[in-house]
């Protein structure tokens, strides 16, 4: 199988991850979760149970795509750094149980809603558990971008500027995660809303590059 084809396969896996991730982590929660209002959230979930169930299913599928992705990327990137490729795979694998546990919190809530036994306290408990495990996942979602970005930068299989975005994005993820623990009034920092933007550019950019162009083969003599 050519390097270009290996890249396209990884790109379509990445596209599946992006689509399910946007739906389960952004779109569906924006329609269902009322921040700081558990009563309204419960009402939204009861009135849109199918969307809630789809959100949970998409989160599980997202985890499956994510689990497969680093192995597909390593097919053409590991030649430029086997240890970095192994680290990339390890960080992704470690993230998956936490992501599934986060979805499990909402799964139990969905069952309670289906049985018409859900209470506001159930919503509070599910959201607390979900946030805990998603925070654990977020660490790995940021950390894996460092070896991935390094391999992109070193290999040139994908444009190197995307590797830079991935490396900067990894730092941004971790800054957003740990910043509130060490910096007072962290959310008032002017640029804080933009620290993960490089990660989005790097991930979506590398995804679409791979889908459209595949991975670049090594230059002759390298």
Mean pLDDT: 92
Rg, nearest Å: 19 Å
Q: Based on helices, strands and strand pairing, what is the structural class?
A: mainly alpha
Helix fraction? over 70%
**SSE arrangement, N to C:** HHHHHHHH
Give the overall silhouette: globular
Percentage of β-strand residues? under 5%
Count helical runs. Answer: 8
Number of strands: 0
Can you describe what's shown?
80% of the residues lie in helices and 0% in strands. It is mainly α and 222 residues long. The chain is globular. The relative contact order is 0.15. The mean pLDDT is 92.
Secondary structure topology:
Elements lengths: L2 H30 L5 H10 L1 H29 L4 H33 L5 H24 L1 H11 L4 H23 L14 H17 L9
Helix pairs in contact: 1-3, 1-8, 2-5, 3-4, 4-5, 4-6, 5-7, 6-7, 7-8
């Amino acid at each position: 199988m050519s390097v270009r084809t290996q890249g396209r396969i990884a790109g379509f896996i990445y596209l599946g991850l992006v689509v399910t991730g946007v739906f389960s982590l952004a779109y569906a929660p924006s329609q269902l979760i009322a921040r700081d209002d558990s009563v309204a959230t419960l009402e939204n979930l009861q009135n849109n149970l199918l969307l809630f169930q789809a959100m949970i299913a998409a989160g599980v599928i997202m985890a499956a795509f994510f689990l497969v992705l680093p192995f597909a990327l390593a097919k053409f990137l590991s030649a430029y750094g086997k240890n970095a490729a192994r680290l990339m795979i390890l960080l992704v694998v470690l993230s998956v149980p936490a992501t599934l546990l986060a979805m499990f919190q909402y799964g139990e809530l969905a069952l309670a809603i289906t049985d018409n036994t859900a209470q506001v306290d159930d919503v509070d408990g599910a959201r607390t558990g979900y946030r805990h495990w998603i925070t654990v996942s977020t660490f790995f979602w940021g950390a894996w971008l460092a070896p991935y970005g390094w391999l992109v930068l070193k290999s040139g299989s994908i444009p190197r500027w995307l590797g830079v975005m991935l490396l900067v994005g990894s730092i941004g993820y971790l800054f957003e995660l740990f910043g509130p623990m060490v910096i007072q009034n962290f959310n008032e920092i002017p640029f804080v809303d933009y620290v993960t933007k490089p990660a989005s550019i790097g991930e979506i950019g590398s995804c679409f590059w791979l889908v459209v162009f595949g991975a670049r083969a090594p230059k002759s003599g390298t």
